[in-house]
């Protein structure tokens, strides 16, 4: 596993999520990994899956901007999402990105109603933040992560690696944030790069 794509879903690269993404990128590169960052807001991909695009995807036809993202997925051994959890899910641009890029015919197919995953051999993980403290988020955390695993990633054939969550980031002290960034480095070494 030497090729990584980071899907950065926060609208501000100067945010703490941006610091997480940069820390993860540098940690992976220091381990000799190739890393490409796809800043979902920077690339300007519309989050809207139109009816025409949906119908075309059923025929294996995709817009060039989606084919480009498919090539990044094809290139990658591991994809890691970096995002804030807003209203219980990915930011809207990130959710729309997944809707469009994990396209029918590319990421999965259906035989009658049985899903056929098409991205086997690839891994996916996530580093995400919440404003809620860990203890307040604990009850829903497992449910949310299991939903991502089963309904998105495994559905498409990805093997999931552990997710890393940081809570209470809005109120975190500088010292706490430094420790969080150290945890990102450790995550890169222990989970992501194996």
Tell me the helix content.
40-55%
Would you identify the regions where 5 or more consecutive residues have pLDDT less than 50?
none
Number of domains: 1
Strand content: 15-25%
- Widest sheet, order of strands: 2-1-3-6-7
End-to-end gap: 7 Å
Radius of gyration, CA atoms, in whole angstroms = 17 Å
The third-level CATH topology is Rossmann fold
Number of helices, where a helix is a run of at least 4 consecutive DSSP H or I residues: 7
Order of helices and strands: EHEHHHEHEEEHEH
**Looking at the structure, what is the overall shape?**
globular
Name the CATH architecture.
3-Layer(aba) Sandwich
Derived from helix and strand composition plus strand pairing, the structural class reads alpha/beta
Number of strands: 7
According to CATH, the homologous superfamily is: Flavodoxin domain
The CATH class name reads Alpha Beta
How would you summarize the topology of this molecule?
Layout: E1 3-8, H1 16-30, E2 34-39, H2 40-43, H3 51-57, H4 64-75, E3 78-84, H5 92-101, E4 108-111, E5 114-117, E6 123-129, H6 134-156, E7 159-166, H7 174-192
Parallel strand pairs: 1-2, 1-3, 3-6, 6-7
Antiparallel strand pairs: 4-5
Domain Flavodoxin-like fold: 9-186
InterPro entries: Flavodoxin_fold, Flavoprotein-like_sf, NAD(P)H_dehydrogenase_qn
Family: Belongs to the NAD(P)H dehydrogenase (quinone) family.
């Amino acid at each position: 596993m030497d090729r990584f794509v980071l899907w950065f879903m926060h609208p501000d690269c100067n945010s703490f999520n941006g610091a997480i993404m940069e820390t993860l990128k540098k940690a992976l590169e220091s381990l000799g990994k190739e890393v490409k960052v796809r800043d979902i807001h920077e690339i300007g991909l519309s989050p809207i899956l139109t009816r025409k695009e949906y119908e075309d995807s059923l025929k294996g036809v995709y817009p060039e901007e989606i084919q480009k993202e498919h090539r990044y997925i094809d290139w990658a051994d591991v994809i890691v999402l970096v995002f804030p959890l807003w209203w219980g899910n990915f930011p809207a641009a990130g959710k729309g990105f997944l809707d469009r890029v994990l396209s029918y015919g590319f990421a999965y197919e259906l035989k009658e109603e049985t899903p056929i995953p098409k991205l086997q051999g690839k891994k996916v993980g996530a580093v995400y933040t919440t404003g809620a403290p860990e203890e307040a988020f604990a009850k829903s955390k497992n449910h949310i992560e299991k939903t991502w695993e089963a309904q998105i990633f495994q559905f498409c054939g990805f093997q999931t690696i552990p997710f890393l969550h940081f809570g209470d980031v809005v109120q975190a002290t500088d010292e706490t944030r430094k420790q969080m960034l150290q945890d990102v480095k450790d995550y890169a070494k222990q989970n992501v790069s194996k």
